[in-house]
Amino acid sequence: MEEEVPGFYGESGKSVQATLSSLKMLDVGKWPIFSLCSEEELQLIRQACVFGSAGNEVLYTTVNDEIFVLGTNCSGCLGVGDIQSTIEPRRLDSLTGKKIASLSYGSGPHIVLATTDGEVFTWGHNAY
Predict the structure, then answer these.
(1) 2 domain residue, yes or no
(2) Count of domains in the chain?
(3) Residue 1: in which H helix or E strand, if any?
(4) Residue 43 is assigned to a structural domain of this protein
(5) What are 11-69's pLDDT values in tens digits?
(6) In a domain, 104, yes or no
């Protein structure tokens, strides 16, 4: 069944048409950390950034413009305000509803998130 998903944005930040069936093509199966998510949660993932020395941390956005994090939380890289690991996805409420253009990470680790409105959010180790 083809169903249009409103508010889907490509890398350029311009709105594009997408269908649920095309979004399901995102293959997260090769990353063991996603085994901690339910099948329902996996079906909603639009964009994901897996990081950490063993791929043990993840930041992902959903088709509902929610942002979730999961993993070991090294140096506060999950952005939840503490350094506690989590085996259940935690929503970043302060970023819910933001249209995410891109996600990235660097050593430390450090996270950078950019919105289609030109906002940039960063958190994590903060070293250079």
Answers:
(1) no
(2) 1
(3) none
(4) yes
(5) 444 433 443 444 444 677 788 999 999 999 999 999 999 988 888 999 999 999 999 99
(6) yes
